[in-house]
Structure formats: structure tokens, C-alpha cells
Amino acid sequence: VKPNRLLAVKQQIKDFYLNLDGVYECSILPFAGDANPYFCPFTTDRKSFLQMLDELSWDSAPSLGTDLTSAIDTLKTVYIAKDKVDKSGINI
Question: What mean pLDDT is predicted for residues 41-58?
Fold first, then answer.
């Protein structure tokens, strides 16, 4: 994927985000071998979200690898259990 996968996905996320039809709480959860839930916590601030998206890099995840299960587990243990985010309102 040109220019590379990360830049391509960041552009897709930006396009999707800018075309949302309302105000939503959004978060960026970088993951590879492990997830980094504190990179960009839930926010409704468009400028903050886009800035964090711009700062997202290959080293935003704490370890290398591919572990989607770790990302889902982090979503459940950090966002839902610890931060008390309403599970019924989360879309991944």
C-alpha cells in the first residue's frame, strides 16, 4: 500500500472521522503485540483526535507483533471496567 500501510490507514481513519455525521467520542488504540490504551483516550474534541492521529507512528504500540486479542482485552479491562465506559455505546 502506497506510501506505506500506516500512512494509508491514517488517511482512511481521517477520511472516515471527518465524514461522521455528528459528535462522537473517539479513541485511538494502537496495538501490535500489546495495546497502548493511553495514547489517545476517548475525546469529542476534533482537533485533539486529529492531532493524535497525526502523531500515531509505528512505535505508538508498546511491542511488536500482531495480537488483536490483546487490543480487545485492553478495551474490556481499561475502557469498560476501569474507566467505566458504557459497553453498549462502544463501536469498534
Answer: 93
